[in-house]
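Format notes (please read before filing issues)

Several people have asked whether sequences and structure tokens are stored in separate files. They are not. Every record keeps both together, in the order shown below: the sequence lines, then the token lines. Line labels are part of the format and must not be stripped during preprocessing.
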Amino acid sequence: MKKRYLFTAAGVQQWLTDLYGSSQQVIDDEVDYILHDFVAWLIERFDLDEAQQDYLDTIDDSLLDHWSELICFAVLHGLPITLEKPAETPAVRSTKLVLTREQTSNGAPTLQRGSRKGNEGTVTGDLTFTIVYA
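Then the structure lines:
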């Protein structure tokens, strides 16, 4: 995939629609990119402004790794991923929080290392990223 999407709820949905409509090889390549260089993938895949790119540099690597694994799990199982964020960034902000909510049909966390589509039965659920300013 070479297309860049808006970093909005609609942009994330369009990315998923395009990705899920692609071949398994394209999906696997996207997952590999996400896992191996999450920040580069975000910058290449979504239209981030300079402040958003700078913010990525402040996030702990272990959290970035966790997010990349959550996204990959959702993608490999064809699950919905949602971005919830304000339409506009507040002019004055003190703290930016990025929250995740992952839910499967049985209420368990979605992250299961080594999971591949078809290996563990059907997985249902969703992944939501919520950006808030406090």
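For reference, the curators noted about this record: Residues 61-76 form the longest helix (16 residues). The radius of gyration is 15 Å.
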